[in-house]
Amino acid sequence: MNSFSTLLLACMLAASPAGAAAAEDAAAKVPADSDKAVESDNILGRYVQASGSRVVRGLTMAAMFAGSLPKMGKSATVNARRLITREGSVNYEITGRHGDSTVWKEIILRYINGEMERAGKDNPKVAVTPENYKFKYKGERERDGRIAHVFEVNPRKKRQGLFKGEIWIDGETALTVYETGRFVKSPSVFLKKVHFSREYAILDGVAVPKTLQTSIETRFWGLAQLDIQFSDFHWDDPLFALN
Fold first, then answer.
1. Count of structural domains within the chain
2. How far apart, in Å, do the first and last CA atoms of the chain sit?
3. Strands 163-170 and 176-183
4. Rounded CA gap, 128 and 194, in Å?
């Protein structure tokens, strides 16, 4: 089950900076004489800059986990406080736990421990940037009363941690507000397909996780699900919100 937490953590990795050449390469895939190409180029350029320069630090939030193994009729919920320190590490304080112990230990706790171990260790090979993905502009959508630009993303390589799906980029801040897709490669023969969707909230100029929903088809347990909701955000010091 270590591979379970590895896949979920790939969803939680912050985007890392990408070079200008990579952004130009992605935009070049669209005909240069189209308005769509110009708009796509501008949006991607802003997105690359924003995702590489805005990092969450010194933030605490409430986290509510709901895990389940539907085929086995097992489920559990956990309430916790999640702290992102000024140094970028992540700590959890469990405040309540109910339900099945297997779901708690094998799904929720493994995810929590895995995130704490991996926090602060940037992995540019799985970042959602033009270096790792081909972007195809799909147009505008409205989300929470704001305009978002939707891109279809396809990995340049079939690498563990990369996914095929969509990202939604906020028109005002150029930060990601929504991601959804399927991982293109499983790190384990025990896992088959992994689907996820993740929402972000824009808080003081940075994107913070709002919800994460993951559905995994396992070979032994059938479907495994993990939903996480974040709320009640508090800055330790707002000056540490931006890198």
1. 1
2. 34
3. antiparallel
4. 17
pTM of the model: 0.81
Strand stretches in the chain, DSSP E: 59-69, 74-84, 90-99, 133-143, 146-155, 163-170, 176-183, 191-203, 206-218, 223-235
Q: How far apart are CA 179 and CA 165, in angstroms?
A: 8
Residue 120 carries which side chain, given as an amino acid letter?
Answer: G
- pLDDT tens-digit profile of 95-116? 999 999 999 998 999 899 989 9
Q: 192 in a domain, yes or no? A: yes
Q: How do residues 180-230 score in pLDDT, each as one tens digit?
A: 999 998 867 778 889 999 999 999 888 999 999 999 998 888 999 999 999
Q: Which of 82, 74, 115 has the alpha carbon at shortest distance from 98?
A: 74
Domain that holds residue 222: 2-233
Q: Tell me, yes or no, whether 79 lies in a domain.
A: yes
Does the pLDDT at position 151 exceed 60? Answer: yes
- Enumerate the H helices of the chain as residue ranges: 2-12, 20-27, 35-53, 101-103, 110-118
Residue 137 lies in a domain: yes
